[in-house]
Give the backbone structure.
Amino acid sequence: MHELSIVVNIVEIVEEEVLKAEAESVSAIELDIGKLSTIEPAAFEFAWKHGIRDSVLESAELKINYIQGIGKCSDCNTLFKMNALYDSCPECGCYFSEIVEGKEMNIKTIRIEEKLKPEKES
Amino acid sequence: MCITCGCGTDSAHIVNKDHDHSHMNNKGHIHAHAHTHESIQGHDHSHSQTANGMGQQNTESRIVHLEKDILHENALLAARNRGYLDAKSILAINLVSSPGSGKTMLLERTLTDLKEELLFNVIEGDQQTTVDADRIEKTGTKAIQINTGKGCHLDAHMVMHAIQDLKPVENSVLFIENVGNLVCPSMFDLGENERVVIISVTEGDDKPLKYPDMFHTSGICIINKIDLLPYVPFDCDKLIENAKKINPNLTFFRVSCTTGEGLKSWLGWLMERSAELRNR
């Protein structure tokens, strides 16, 4: 259940940002999760509900962009869609490939709510 | 409190017979570094103000473009471990497998057989008990046990503290026996030189396809318990074929820690790899 570790890491990173920004709260968060990363969507969503309790993310709207896996064949340089780590090159059948996209586990953006600063007097 | 990183109360726990103490925080293996380190990317935010999502008049929304790796804290600590170990020419090996594949027994054999050739230290990772560290210490090797509590893997932070306690000497070999789990430990770089995945013949030759990440991130695959091959429907060549679909660069050793069959080539590889580091 490493998904819970991932959620706790996210909470820590966001708490740090909220503190730096002296923000009030976080109203939204957007994540990039590669389909070839080890994150299982159902397990992640379950872990999310529990992991964000009593944290700055408790009422944040969650958006996850699941990134399609893309491999580059080491033999013929073909770029191809990868749905599993054992997918071979559709052109030459080779298993040597570099994963170009699909391993991401990033926090892309957060939307923070800040106190309105009083307007300067003229 | 830990001076290095400010962590305090316990859950993941390092058991050192000299001075038993805890280094981890109350979230278990996850460490709250949140307020002690600056973000690598700094504060490169765009300040596009948007409509107030909360429907209140006294706050305004701001989108912060973080683009931050969720595991970046672990990556930083792993790099730190790697730098320390590299400076001391210590070969660090992260042993990963399902529970019961024979990680501890492989260690017992390796430590005993190479006692005269190499200096060893061992970090043992388990959810509970010091059973494995006790087994290792019986071979005469210094071992330290990390109990992860509910945690399903070791991370770079736990290993950092274990190294601080263990104080491995220069030119030695540091084995890190991870928590028995073929999934979660694959995500966590500990700062090792080599990741070695062990699979025993009682587990099935389709495991690499079912649990690809561990085979994808390892450099060495040890097929253990080959003395049981006559009794189980396990095809070594099929296992290798499946594992190579995930990671064509894997090197394989077929061994039995019970009979000693095949161990010579594994031990030879280990001596060679350690010599490479020492003789740079």
About this structure: Residues 2-21 of chain A form the longest helix (20 residues).
